[in-house]
Design brief:
Layout (H helix, E strand, L loop, with lengths): L1 E6 L6 H12 L1 E5 H11 L2 H12 L5 H14 L5 E5 L5 H12 L7 E6 L2 H15 L7 H15 L1 H8 L3 E5 L4 H15 L1
Parallel strand pairs: 1-3, 1-4, 2-3, 4-5
Helix pairs in contact: 1-9, 2-3, 4-5, 6-7
The structure holds adenosine-5'-diphosphate.
Amino acid sequence: MKNFLIFGPPGSGKGTQSVKLADKFNLKHLSTGDMLRAEIAAGSELGKKMSLIMAKGELVPDAVVIEMIASKIDSTKGVAGFLFDGFPRTVAQTEELEKMLNARGMKIDCMLVLDVDHDELVKRLILRAEQSGRPDDKDPDVIENRIDVYKEKTEPIIDYCRRHDLYYPVDGVGSIDDIFGRLCAVIEKIK
Ligand code: ADP
């Protein structure tokens, strides 16, 4: 099993690329954002609480996403590995994930980082808001806050991955297929 993190600021294209990569390499795509939105759609108590945090562009508590991920890891069979999208988002989540994988005889093998500049991100998120209906994409202040939260809480994971030789940056600007090709080239080398 090989386990990949796909990483980048909001709007960097993680979700789009993850679906394609999971399909090509038989990886289980685990997106904590999708899982949280499913809780909200189902109207669960957890979903109700988390929606208030997500609407502001803040991070939900580490324990909530760690619990979600652990149960998915344990219930998934027959894949070549996992592709974590939008998780981990803090250094604490990264350390927890590493522990969780180690306890199951696995590890983090590679962190794919999509590099996209700030203006391009804001442009994409405004466009996505028109199509996706996601409330956290509608308000420019919430978009800016999510990018700030990314810089402050999530970007430090890059240092962690550099220290552990897991850091693979990829140019995230271009056509979806071009970026997909760049990501595939990295994964082919790791396999
Ligand atoms: P994006 O990458 O566009 O910000 P996501 O779908 O990954 O979108 O996440 C949407 C929101 O869900 C985040 O802004 C945050 O509130 C919450 N969220 C998702 N994953 C995590 C996580 N690993 N830790 C904390 N909060 C999370």
